[in-house]
Amino acid sequence: MEQNALFRKRYGSFRRFFVMLGKARLPYLWIVGYLAVSALIANVSVSTTEYSAALFAGQVGLFAVVLPYLFFTLLSLVIGSISSLTSNLCLARIDRNLRRMVWKKVVHLPLQFYEANNPKELLSRITTDVTSISTLIMQVLLPVFTTAYSSLLMLGRVSSYDQRLMWALVIVLPVNILISFVLGRMRFGVADLINRRNAQLTAAIAERANNMLLIKSMGTEEKEAVAGEARMKASYQAEVTDLWVRGLALPINAIASALQSVAIILAGRAFYSTGALDLTQWIAYYGFAIQLTNILSNYCNSWSNFKGAQGSVDRVSQIMDEREEPLDEGCAAEVLRGNISLRDVCFSYGDTALFTGLNAEIPAGKITAIVGPSGSGKTTLLNLIDRLYPLAKGTIAVDGRDIAGISLHSFRQAVGYVTQESVMYSGTIRQNLLYGLDRTPDDRELDRVCEAVGILDFVQEQPEGYDTPVGEAGASLSGGQRQRFSVARALLQKSDILLLDEATAAMDISGKDCVWKSIRTLMAGKTVVYVAHDAQTLQNADWILVLEHGTVTAAGDRQTVLQQSAFCREMMDLKGGASA
Ligand SMILES: Nc1ncnc2c1ncn2[C@@H]1O[C@H](COP(=O)(O)OP(=O)(O)OP(=O)(O)O)[C@@H](O)[C@H]1O
């Protein structure tokens, strides 16, 4: 974070914008095509202006003026349509490439990033912010070239009539640019505020929509309605402020344009009356001057978009500056026997230290239970073994090898992990079972594993069997069913080490027994580490670690630990048979 702040301080938005574009792999061929078509339009437009000026001046020669005028008018229509198509395609492709870049980055960031940033706010970074950056490229960045080219072309034509007239035009034109700069600065703050408030609103709505069960059961509908209203009011107020700023910009721009037109006409008129320009040139000059004014003021209006999109650039480039997890650094995991040793492990959440020199041994080929009071760090310990957080100090070794030297990707392939939440996606049962596997087991294998965790009957009762959708995040399944599918998914992974965090807590007594028997059979000879909260699941352990106040206070087989640990005795005596 500190590093990012330093980066942001050192490099302005411009620099970060271009660094980001460098990473985005823009559709360069399409962009070149768009620029070429725009250059063609500029040339056609110069010819159209000159032929129309000749017509206005009374030259009606069919082949010298009328037909060329009609031809160029038609040509500008055709090229205009091609240009608008190319521009829209460019915008869509830039949008797609930027989104792909941000998403690729986001999925490679460490868990800590998601804990430090509201994941739901990330939604708007990938959608709204990316769209404003794509628009910025199409409306501000590329028009630098098209506007400069058209302006130079037209100024060149005016200069061919009289060089002094061109300089007069060059002096008058920047009035609009100056005004747009000032207005753009004003708009930036407001546009950024709108984006931030909308992102907060989206995040809050997404969170509430996910937690409707809690809202209903606690009867907080009214409170939530009022809180939502306050957030919507905040967004509305930001939008109203933006309207006021834009409202102020309109008359200022209109007055500036009117003054500019008067100056342009007076300058042209002076040259025409002294005979420096003929009638056709005078009309053509006026046509070019008006077009130049429009092109520059359109560009300057877009410039205010740049100021508005600066916040989006900052937010997206903040993601792009984050360090990714180095998934492929280090050597391959190969086959792990699964003897896990923790040496002087230190780990903190922010400033709060959880482990300050934790030592523990988890034997290979056994089922080890981790028990301890709530908040003692059992889940965190599993997360550290799965390398979801980096250690502040100390080492974790498997079979004597420091796991920090093993490539994260191959290590996590060798370690299966069933987390507390039993994560399911809104696909079919099959898609959920196969998620993350680098092979495609056939139905017979799926049947075997599902039978082992006691969910095969349920699958067979479904109209579409394994191809039955499970609803959003597995909403159509019970908590126990979700847990069985999560365990089945981990068993299909055929990992060397299996971590389970209260993986059977939502199952009934016979369900737990069935799942644990299968784990013992299917993981025979491999290492299983699980968090146990009740005496029944503790029965499955060959080895027990008691974790209290950041240290292991007892370790060994059941007999040894029961003698050593009051916590464990209490757990067996008081909670005997109770489910977690
Ligand atoms: N992401 C986090 N950020 C900050 N603190 C955290 C985070 N996750 C856990 N903690 C804190 O770390 C401590 C250990 O949490 P952990 O979930 O590892 O405990 P646990 O033993 O598994 O608890 P339980 O038995 O209740 O599931 C707790 O005090 C908790 O508040």
Automatic annotation (TrEMBL):
<dbReference type="InterPro" id="IPR039421">
    <property type="entry name" value="Type_1_exporter"/>
</dbReference>
<dbReference type="InterPro" id="IPR003593">
    <property type="entry name" value="AAA+_ATPase"/>
</dbReference>
<dbReference type="InterPro" id="IPR017871">
    <property type="entry name" value="ABC_transporter-like_CS"/>
</dbReference>
<feature type="transmembrane region" description="Helical">
    <location>
        <begin position="165"/>
        <end position="184"/>
    </location>
</feature>
<feature type="transmembrane region" description="Helical">
    <location>
        <begin position="66"/>
        <end position="91"/>
    </location>
</feature>
<keyword id="KW-1133">Transmembrane helix</keyword>
<dbReference type="InterPro" id="IPR036640">
    <property type="entry name" value="ABC1_TM_sf"/>
</dbReference>
<dbReference type="Pfam" id="PF00005">
    <property type="entry name" value="ABC_tran"/>
</dbReference>
<keyword id="KW-0472">Membrane</keyword>
<dbReference type="Pfam" id="PF00664">
    <property type="entry name" value="ABC_membrane"/>
</dbReference>
<keyword id="KW-0547">Nucleotide-binding</keyword>
<dbReference type="GO" id="GO:0005524">
    <property type="term" value="F:ATP binding"/>
</dbReference>
<dbReference type="InterPro" id="IPR011527">
    <property type="entry name" value="ABC1_TM_dom"/>
</dbReference>
<feature type="domain" description="ABC transmembrane type-1">
    <location>
        <begin position="69"/>
        <end position="308"/>
    </location>
</feature>
<keyword id="KW-0812">Transmembrane</keyword>
<protein>
    <submittedName>
        <fullName>ABC transporter ATP-binding protein</fullName>
    </submittedName>
</protein>
<feature type="domain" description="ABC transporter">
    <location>
        <begin position="340"/>
        <end position="574"/>
    </location>
</feature>
<dbReference type="InterPro" id="IPR027417">
    <property type="entry name" value="P-loop_NTPase"/>
</dbReference>
<dbReference type="InterPro" id="IPR003439">
    <property type="entry name" value="ABC_transporter-like_ATP-bd"/>
</dbReference>
<feature type="transmembrane region" description="Helical">
    <location>
        <begin position="26"/>
        <end position="46"/>
    </location>
</feature>
<feature type="transmembrane region" description="Helical">
    <location>
        <begin position="130"/>
        <end position="153"/>
    </location>
</feature>
<keyword id="KW-0067">ATP-binding</keyword>
